[in-house]
Amino acid sequence: MYENNIISVKNLTKKFGDFTANDNLSFDVKKGEIFGFLGANGAGKTTAIKIFCGLLSPTSGNVNVAGYDIYKDTEKIKKNIGYMSQRFSLYEDLSVKENIRFYARIYGLPKKEIKIKTEELLEKLNFSHAVNKKIKDIPLGWKQKLAFSAAVFHNPKIVFLDEPTGGVDPITRRQFWDLIYETAENGITVFVTTHYMDEAEYCDRVSIMDAGKIEAIGKPEELKKKYNVKSMDEVFIKIAR
Amino acid sequence: MNEFSIILSGISKNYENIKAVDDISLNIKKGELFGLIGPDGAGKTTLIRLLTTLLKPDKGFAEVENFDTVKDYKKIRKIVGYMPGRFSLYQDLSAEENLNFFASVFNTSVEENYDLIKDIYSYIEPFKKRKAGKLSGGMKQKLALSCALIHKPKVLFLDEPTTGVDAVSRKEFWEMLKNLQKKNITILVSTPYMDEASLCDRISLMQNGKLMETDTPENITNKFQKQIFSIRSKNKQKLIKNLREYNQTYSANIFGQDIHYIDKRNNVKIDELHTYLKSEKHTGIEIKAVKPNIEDCFIELMKKEQ
Q: A233 vs B167: CB contact, 8 Å cut-off?
């Protein structure tokens, strides 16, 4: 494994009975990059993400995440990653502050640090006035930003975002990407899935999966050049159709 | 003869203190493919539920094919098809059993209206014995659409049929809708994907329970008053930062690999922007005037509302 790879995948295969969800995947994600993990529905993205997060064991192959082996060190992997799902992972009946504290405590952050970091975060997001509001009473765009902030609160080495911007208005969607860029600048690797092809352009590199295999991987400019098209949307359609 | 299939007049619906639908008036023509475009929480689902007689309005009224949604709700239910946002078929019945069930509820048979769903259902036919819950996402979507169509409705309501669906399957789904439209069905479809707007005859851009704008996609983009410049350079991160700091900037938003830039001044020259970006040490600068797309319009309308 190279020093600068945060995820290293070699010949990863995952089968469910006769069905091969991940078919001999090999690729690396570099430290600090924003990596777009694209593919059609059912292409095998969710299975792969579950394996990288230590939630599912591969059938064969080697995977190293944040310096830990996927077979032996799943608990260490979980401590060193953040995860935000399609539908936000916040507790609706807890307040903004309670949710942050809950996540921070799960990752074992000391109380003093939680207090300081919570205030910093609330100020940055302009949430200070809403700190005691329940999650169910705050607007959707806020929830999304808060869910993301909770996922990186313990300063993980890598954060997995599974369709983080689905259904969000165009202004909030862009603010969300500002947060992603900021996170990457702070050295946290971002691994993101999306169905918005304009967002594929925002990634440093992307991979496109189809039927369990990675069919293309590279910088958006490289892929557009390779397939001789103007947008990532066209690249995606050439590969997945 | 009324040329409208759907009429909404001053209709409102509140949930406690949230105005989900706030005084909306709108007419949708017979045979139109009409798009309700807006993010989650805009009120799209509530509006569709009012029209499908699943909710009663607090104020105002609505008509579907000349029937009042409150008084004539039973009549409306017979002539509309509805595909809710969440998969709502019977997971433990097979694909075929689901379809037969929906046909029998409406006193018809699959054979009678097979013509209408043939193009869509033919994808599922090979898997018709499989339980609905075990179908792939794309198959579920096609089965749900078949079930919503099996009684040959006059009006079809589709609530976010393409949410979470990949770019390729979305294109296929819209091709199916275009074909259905040819069979004289009025279609009201909601979506959070702005790029789907151009596939509709007319659209409403919805936010916070209100329709910000209603027109053909072309007219909406033509009405956009400001000149947009599409700008790129070698360093996109620095570019967006520099454009936001520039003292003549009205707005700078990222659009794929470009930045859509609007200047405060009316007669801004490309040369001037070029000089500014050069002074900030950008290389590979490209600036061109472009026409707005629906997302530009939506962002601008949201800014005005705030």
A: yes
